Amino acid sequence: MPNLAKSVNIEAAEILEIFQWKKTSDELSEDEKTHLKGEIADTLIYLFYMCDRLNVDPMDVMKAKLEYNKGRKWN
């Protein structure tokens, strides 16, 4: 499991790297958008692997978190 957690973080960092030095997403070239889609996919794949290993339904945890966030105060 630690390797999956590390992989999620590494792939998420690769998403962030695409936006490094950009002020808005409008600045992304078509090649960068294609690269971004691949990195999003990689991140999701590792997250789904983690959910599978934990026997967790990703849709259930997302719904629960969205419901929880409805009651939060955002400052």
Walk me through the structure:
By secondary structure, the chain is mostly helical. It has a single domain (2-70), classed as MazG-like (Helix Hairpins, Orthogonal Bundle). The chain is built from 3 helices and no strands. The protein has helices at residues 2-19, 30-54, 58-70. α1 runs antiparallel to α2. The mean pLDDT is 94.
Q: Key terms for this structure?
A:
75 residues, mainly alpha, 75% helix, globular
Summary?
The chain has helices at 2-19, 30-54, 58-70.
Furnish the topology, listing elements before pairings.
Blueprint: H1 2-19, H2 30-54, H3 58-70
Helix pairs in contact: 1-2
Supply the CATH superfamily name.
MazG-like
Most strands sheet: none
User: What is the number of E strands?
Assistant: 0
Give unreliable regions as ranges: none
Q: What is the name of the CATH topology?
A: Helix Hairpins
Q: Tell me the number of structural domains.
A: 1
Structural class: mainly alpha
Q: Let me know the average pLDDT.
A: 94
Radius of gyration: 15 Å
Classified by CATH, the class is Mainly Alpha
* Beta-strand residue fraction: under 5%
Shape: globular
Number of helices: 3
Q: What's the order of the H and E elements?
A: HHH
Can you name the CATH architecture?
Orthogonal Bundle
Helix proportion of residues, in percent? over 70%
* End-to-end C-alpha gap: 34 Å
